[in-house]
Amino acid sequence: MIKNEMKKCQAGFTLIETIITLIVLSIAAIGVLSVFTFGIGRSADPLIVGQATQMAQGELDTVIGIKTANGFSSPDLNTGTGQACKTAMLTGFNCSLDICFVTDVSLDNTGTCNTPTLYKRVAVTVTNPTGGSVELVTLLTSY
Q1: Which of the residues 100, 106, 125, 142 has an alpha carbon 20 to 30 A from that of 92?
Q2: Residue 52 backbone phi and psi in degrees, to 5
Q3: Which secondary structure element, helix H or strand E, spans residue 97, and what is its range?
Q4: What is the chain's Cα-based Rg?
Q5: In whole angstroms, what is the distance from residue 138 CA to residue 126 CA?
Q6: Burial letters for 99-136: b for 16+ Cβ neighbours within 10 Å, e otherwise?
Q7: Around 79, how many Cα atoms within 13 Å sit in the side-chain half-sphere?
Q8: Could you tell me which of 76, 71, 83, 81 has the C-alpha nearest to residue 118?
Q9: Considering only CA atoms, which of 48, 55, 72 is closest in space to residue 125?
């Protein structure tokens, strides 16, 4: 009689059930946290790309200003690839300036880079600390 009364009073989870529940919840939490960790690790990328774009645009503005102030044939606008940029970059960012003569038939063809024409293709490439890069291109004319 006492045995039957003890069984009726017992209620709740066993130790094994509690341990299995903790293991299942831990596995689920690890999956969710790994997604958050990946997202947080990449959350600064849009900011870095935005900074690189702004610096490249600033360099293009400087080149256009040089052309406006000193003319199309300014020594500051000599043709060549891999030139140093005219403006300072933020720490960790690198800038490269390519200025090439192009023809009106093919404005992207830089094969005749040193043959004078009425057009110069200016490409600014800013490489950011995470390894990505932004390239902006404009066209200068001798008009």
Answers
A1: 100
A2: -65, -40
A3: strand 94-102
A4: 32
A5: 15
A6: bbbbeeeeeeebeebeeeeebbbbbbbbbbeeeebbeb
A7: 19
A8: 71
A9: 55
What are the structure tokens assigned to 140, written together?
């200068």
Query: What is the model's pTM?
Result: 0.69
Written as six digits, the tokens of 18 are 């509690």
Which residues, including other chains, have CB under 8 Å from residue 45's CB and lie 6 or more apart? 130, 132
